[in-house]
Design a protein that fits this description.
CATH class: Mainly Alpha
Oligomer: single chain
CATH superfamily: Cytochrome P450
Subcellular location: Membrane
Function: Catalyzes the 14-alpha demethylation of obtusifoliol to 4 alpha-methyl-5 alpha-ergosta-8,14,24(28)-trien-3 beta-ol.
CATH topology: Cytochrome p450
Bound molecules: protoporphyrin IX containing FE
Radius of gyration: 23 Å
Shape: globular
Catalytic activity: a 14alpha-methyl steroid + 3 reduced [NADPH--hemoprotein reductase] + 3 O2 = a Delta(14) steroid + formate + 3 oxidized [NADPH--hemoprotein reductase] + 4 H2O + 4 H(+)
Number of domains: 1
Keywords: Heme, Iron, Lipid biosynthesis, Lipid metabolism, Membrane, Metal-binding, Methyltransferase, Monooxygenase, Oxidoreductase, Steroid biosynthesis, Steroid metabolism, Sterol biosynthesis, Sterol metabolism, Transferase, Transmembrane, Transmembrane helix
Helix content: 40-55%
GO molecular function, one term: sterol 14-demethylase activity
Length: 488
């Protein structure tokens, strides 16, 4: 399933950022750090000059050029809501770890309240948000993954059983379908997966109507996309509430994430409400499904164009299949280090969230690697472009090269610059709570594909589509497949 209306969000966000910068332009030069130690300023006209490059080369190259020219901290705009870019582990500790009262998403994501309801996230006070974040992270923590292996394997095996002996498919489209099936089963539960999958899939598609630029800026406007989004939220909440109530009444307990959210307790001992559970589950599925299907597609594109790593990943599957003759379990997937690093390297080069954004509620200072100290004023929009920081040459050797071995035990390049050297899953307070789940499902998929099929990439290696909220491979990813007999 795609969320076509998401497409405009990222485009819109970038356009908005761009407009803010251009509107706030007064001079057409670049100011170096001034006596009050504000970061160097790339003003509107200087930024305007970059527009052709932005359209031609994409976000990564443009922000990277600015990083090379101005260093790890620079500001865009002169007054109004300036945007400060922070790039690299030396200057991003406060961005990731600051208290919510100091730096947070602010009202930037208030549209999420209209998508997932006011019982969760920004609809609640900060203390409740923090508790709900704890519920999410408890529900998705590593030790819970064991229970997802079997349902994930079932979904993956039955999905690919439907493929023929050989054929041609668009992997991007296949993974969107498959990831929705897995997410429904493991996150929402078997009641939804078995009885209401079609309706729920359509409703999530409709919920995505709230991701166009007008809805994001004016989420309350009575326009058709907002109405579709609201109708979808109300219906999804009802479907999930019925499932939750029926489990509570019957005393039935399942091994899925919905159950963990139902069983969660606030510090004062109170239970989560039906609306809270439904909202958290909807948000999880919405944020996690698409990023995982994008990453599965990039993994295909990278492996199929890098025969050495493809061969190493297949060899690992042969060894693990021999060891786990009676079937793959969670330990088997934990042992797939080669495949893990192939995916991790995909995420370094193609993070679905290319830029992370916060608002500074209080001023703070940062010190660069070169020892320069800058003050970031209160009220600033602060952005850290993961896509650029994941390519810093003093951390990642030959950063443009796909090289999963960089994460192997000898090199561990992501540890070189400290804990914010690798931020594809963010870090600190808002670190992705679904990382273990994401890796597991992508490994289950690719492990099955490597053990059962041979592939040939037909499409050219895709460019990145920056016009989407979550950056994804542009166009289709066609591959030719043939079933293989895997050595047992
Ligand atoms: C490859 C797949 C994924 C990637 C690259 C990814 C990346 C991210 C990033 C970068 C953030 C933080 C955004 C920020 O700092 O502003 C985030 C947050 C989050 N992710 Fe993921 N994610 C993935 C999969 C998942 C999955 C599968 C789930 C759930 C099943 C999930 C659940 C969440 C949640 C609940 C948050 C909000 C955390 C918070 O604000 O406290 N993610 N993700």
């Amino acid at each position: 399933m795609d969320f076509p209306s998401i497409n405009t969000l990222w485009c819109g966000a970038m356009a908005l950022l761009f407009i803010i910068i251009v509107l706030s332009t007064k001079r057409s030069m670049i100011h170096r750090g001034n006596p009050s130690q504000l970061p160097p300023l790339v003003n509107g006209i200087a930024f305007l000059a970059l527009l052709p490059n932005l359209l031609k080369k994409g976000l990564h190259d443009v922000v990277n050029d600015l990083y090379v020219k101005h260093g790890s901290v620079f500001m865009a705009g002169l007054f109004g809501p300036n945007v400060t870019f922070l790039i690299g582990p030396e200057v991003t500790a406060h961005f990731f770890q600051g208290l919510e009262s100091e730096i947070s998403h602010g009202k930037m994501f208030v549209f999420a309240v209209h998508m997932f309801g006011n019982a969760v996230g920004l609809g609640r006070d900060i203390a409740t948000q923090n508790e709900q974040r704890r519920f999410n992270s408890e529900a998705l923590k590593m030790s819970r993954m064991r229970s997802h292996v079997s349902p994930m394997l079932d979904e993956v095996e039955s999905y690919f059983d439907k493929w023929g002996k050989e054929g041609t498919v668009d992997l991007k489209c296949e993974f969107e379908q498959l990831l929705m099936l897995i997410a429904s089963r493991c996150l929402l539960g078997k009641e939804v997966r078995e009885n209401m999958f079609g309706e729920v899939q359509t409703l999530f598609h409709e919920l995505g109507s709230g991701m166009n630029i007008t809805s994001l800026l004016f989420p309350q406007l009575p326009i058709p996309s907002n109405r579709r989004r609201d109708r979808a939220r109300i219906r999804l909440t009802k479907i999930l509430s019925d499932v939750i109530e029926s489990r509570k009444i019957s005393g039935r307990v399942e091994e899925d994430t919905l159950q963990k959210l139902i069983d969660s307790k606030y510090k004062d001992g109170s239970s989560t409400t039906v609306e809270e559970v439904a909202g958290m589950a909807m948000a999880m599925l919405f944020v996690g499904k698409h990023s995982s299907s994008i990453t599965s597609t990039w993994t295909g594109a990278r492996l199929l164009s890098h025969p050495t790593f493809l061969k190493a990943a297949i060899e690992e599957q042969i060894q693990i299949a021999k060891k786990y003759k009676d079937g793959l379990d969670n330990n088997a997937f934990m042992e797939m280090e080669t495949l893990h690093n192939c995916i991790k390297e995909v995420l370094r080069m193609h993070p679905p969230m290319g830029v992370l954004v916060r608002k500074a509620h209080k001023k703070f200072t940062v010190q660069t690697k070169e020892g320069k100290t800058y003050e970031i004023p209160q009220g600033q929009i602060v952005a850290t472009p993961t896509v650029v920081s994941n390519h810093i040459p003093y951390i990642y050797k030959d950063p443009q090269v796909y090289d999963p071995d960089r994460f192997g035990p000898e090199r561990q390049e992501d540890k070189v610059g400290g804990k914010f050297s690798y931020t594809s899953f963010s870090g600190g307070r808002h670190v992705c709570t679904g990382e273990a789940f994401a890796y597991l499902q992508i490994k289950v998929i690719w492990s099955h594909l490597l053990r059962n099929f041979e592939f040939e990439l037909i499409s050219p290696f895709p460019k990145t589509d920056w016009s989407k909220f979550l950056a994804e491979p542009k166009g289709n990813l066609f591959v030719r497949y043939k079933r293989t007999s895997f050595p047992q």
